[in-house]
Amino acid sequence: xxxxxxxxxxxxxxxxxxxxxxxxxxxxxxxxxxxxxxxxxxxxxxxxxxxxxxxxxxxxxxxxxxxxxxxxxxxxxxxxxxxxxxxxxxxxxxxxxxxxxxxxxxxxxxxxxxxxxxxxxxxxxxxxxxxxxxxxx
Length: 137
Fold this sequence. Notes:
Radius of gyration: 18 Å
Strand order of the largest sheet: 1-3-2
Strand content: 5-15%
């Protein structure tokens, strides 16, 4: 009996750590904690919610990629998407997906707040400001 409880505790702890590491790459720690406390929110089919959506891609990326060596193209992509990801997470957004040179995120799920629209707009402005710095570099 004690071994069974210890095994269950260790396994559950290992699964929770895995989920935490996986989700922490795409959302704020507060959201990760909320999902771990409410696992029923993670289910196939999702839920209907009002959300604010953020979508950004690198203008002229195909042309840039054709002109530059692969290493330089990868560096540009890595820098831009990492920077945007940090801004989105810092502003309590959830990264939905990366599609080539694009990033898509949303606010309002799994936790809705009064500031979702404001946080989404703040993230968009901060990404534009960060892009100016990236382009200087």
